Structure formats: structure tokens, C-alpha cells
Amino acid sequence: MCQFCGVDPAFAAFFENTQGVPQDPSVISTQPTPAKPNFFRLKPKLSNMASESKDLKESQLRSFQNSLSQNAQVITETDGKLYTDAIRRWSKCAIKPALAVIKPGTPEDVSKIILLAKSHKVHFTVKCGGHSPGGASSSDGGIVIDLGLMNSVTAKADEKTIIAGGGALWRDVSRVAAEYGLSCVSGSTSHVGVGGLILHGGYGYLAGEYGLAVDNLIAAQIVLADGSIVWASEEENSDLFFGIRGAGSRLGVAIKFVIRAHEQRKSIWGGPLSFPGFQYESIINALNTWYNQKDLKGAAELVLGKGVGGVAGITIMCFYNGTEEEALTNFAPLLQLRPTINATAEMPYWRINTLSEGKDVYTDDNIRFASGNLTPPLDPQHIRKLLDSLDHLYETVPSAAKTGCLTLCIQPDGILKKKRTDMAFCWRDANFDVGIGANWTDPAAESKVIEWQKEFQKLVSTGGDDYRLYGNHEDFRGGAREFGINYLKIIQLKKKYDPENLFRRV
Q: Using an 8 Å Cβ cutoff, are 488 and 424 in contact?
């Protein structure tokens, strides 16, 4: 019996004592954490922990819910549609049958869930947006800590900061920030979770001006493997702060973020320009000309995917953080090519990240990501090879028609403000991030599509750094290739903060 199945008074007393746990999310506490009781006292013997059952029964999970805050939820398969909805994910192939999905309402709830899983030797993972197509936020037979109830977002406009809960999505952050004339560096999709993106890099349209999303993290509240709740910043637990900025999912559960915001004009200019694939040479040459203007306010996403006539085409998703007049001058090299579709316009900043999204956060498609990168200037002939590879896939695997890749072209100035050794995220260079999205609807096509993706990833890398991997696009499978020069330091931090490898392995 663990402390949750028969309530341990010392355990309960610890969580009733909130001294040292900041109640104001913008306050980084320097008070000492109260002494913790022995969370893993077993009744009647301590020495028998290794022989504890790895299984948690339904009755135990229901009993455990009584120890959580009022709004917290424990969801199991017996809950029917509630459970089915709780394990649904953006990518269909990321859906896994969890033993339980537990939605905490407080930091103390998260701590209790970790200790429950640890005492019963049950695997657990953390979900925020559920956007990882490889299933990083899903568990096959374990516990999912779903932070969806901890999704509050507030602004401290006078300090230009945003306070976001661990379950917030970037669309929530963008809209709250916009109310105060602010914006935060985020990805180019609005329905991803704040935590996954910001803790592992975070490329976005504003990165040329302000650096990556992770560069704008001021502090984070973390629940560690031993159940303790701490703040990490440059001033407090600075080694942990180093580690979570790039390897966050390996060291703890981030339940609150303090994010630097920036003054934002009311409208930006942007939208898609679409071209047929046979124009690749003039398009890439024009894109290189645009890039060589070195305007930090401009960004462009080069999208290769199935276009008119069923063959691979090119779309440029334009972004300019300025007036329409300035934008038209900046993007003149591409606009002069007379695209087949020009849907650019002035719009609020938050809207640009929603243009490629459907009405539903989740799809019914099977999707897998892979990471790549390209070194500017882009080679038109290399891009032609990528288009040819996509056409071959479309011809041989009809159900993979939505497969494509996205290359974010931004100036490196903001990214290069940090050194490789300033934080766990090390890729400080001018290379363009490439996300390769394999998408198929026929389950029988999976092996063919994944094999194509591997070969396509190799082909992409011939135009960039074939060692470099971006964790958010590689589903955190990169190991040393994610952390480069910082890999050994991450190993040491892992030994200090998570010696039993409760969280994702490095």
C-alpha cells in the first residue's frame, strides 16, 4: 500500500504547508522549501519497494483522486468518451491507450502524481498541446499528466512579461499579449503547447528580431523527480535553468512560465504566395534576393507540398512586422513573379499563426515529423531534387498527398545573440530550420512513407548540417545531436535532477 491508497499523514501535512511555494506566479521565491517527509514510506515495510506491483487498480486511482485538488480529474477507460477524448492527439499515430489520464489543478497535484507513479513504478509522461506526432505526450499503459486545466495566461504589461500556465497554448498567449500591445516569440502554429515549444527552442516569425522562444524565457516553475516544486531562473537554480532551456522534458515538469514580451504594432502584413513547382529556379533566386536584404522584420516560410495538377508546388508564407507599404517593398522580388495565389494582407500578429490551421486542433491523419536544416543561400537545384522526391511519393503512395516540408527563412541576428554554451539549446547558426511532415491516411502505407521520410531527410541534409537536429521536429529522439557541445553537461544535470530517469531519457 502506498501513501495514496492509505493516506500518509506526513504526506498530507507537507502539501498543506505552502510556505516557500510562490502564490504569485511572477514572484521567484528565495525562501527555503520546507523539509519533505519520506514520501515513499510503505506499510508495513520500506525494504520491499522493489517487489511492489507495477499495476495500479481502478480503485486505487479513484482513491488517489480524493487526495487531489477539487477541480483535478482522474480519467480511465471506464469513463468512455471522456477517456477517448483525453487520449486523442494531433497525429492519429500518437494515440496510445494510457492506464489513466490525470489532469492536475495545482502544482501540488503534479507533485503527487509524480510520486504516485514513482512509488508504483508506473511510466508517466506530460501533455500540454498534444502536438508531438511521435507520441511524446502519450503513454502506452502508463499515466499521462495532462496540464490542460493549468492554462491561465496573464500579462504584466508594465514589466513586458507574460505569465503562462503549463497547460496554455500559444494562441492563448498571443491573444492576451495583444490586448496590451505586446507579442511573444512563438512558433508558426498557434495550437501547440507553450511548454513543448519554449523548452526545446522555438523558431518563429519574430526570432530574427528577438531570438528564439527559449531565449525569451525569464523563469519557470518546475516539479522535480523527488516531488519538490522549485523556480528556475538566472538567479535561482541557475544550473536547472540552463538545462530546461533546451532539455526541459528531461529534467522535470514545467508548470508555469514567465516569458519576455515585446511591443507589437497593431497589424503586420503576411499570408501565402503560391507558385507551380516548375518555377522553382526563379522562386528560389528571388527568395535569396529577398533574404539578402537582411531586414530583421521580414520572415518567410518556404513550403513544398502537393499543388495544382497533383504535383509538388511551392508556397511562400510571408511575414513582415511593419506596414503594408514596407512589406510590399521588402517582398517585391517574390511578388514580381506573379504568384498563382496571393492571399497576403494586413492582419493582427496573432492571426498569422492560424492561417494554415483547420477548425479542429486534432487531425484524423497519421503524421510523423523529422528534422532538417538548410544553409543559405538556397540552391535551386537542391530544391528541385526535393520537389522530385515529393512527386515520386505522391505517385507511389496516393494516401500521402498531404506530405511536405517547411523551411523557415529568418535573419540569424536574434538567434546569434546567445552563445552555444549559454543554455542546453546549442544551435546558434544561420541555418534555416526544416520540418519534414510525413502525412498518410492509409495505415498500410506507414512503412513506405517512413522509409521515404528517412531518405528525404538525408537529401535535405546535403544542403545543411547533417549532424544538427532540432528536438521539436525530431520528437526528442536526437540525443547528442540535439544538444551538441552541451550533451555531457545535460548528462550531469540528468544525474543530479533525475537520477532514476523518470522523465524522458537524454
A: no
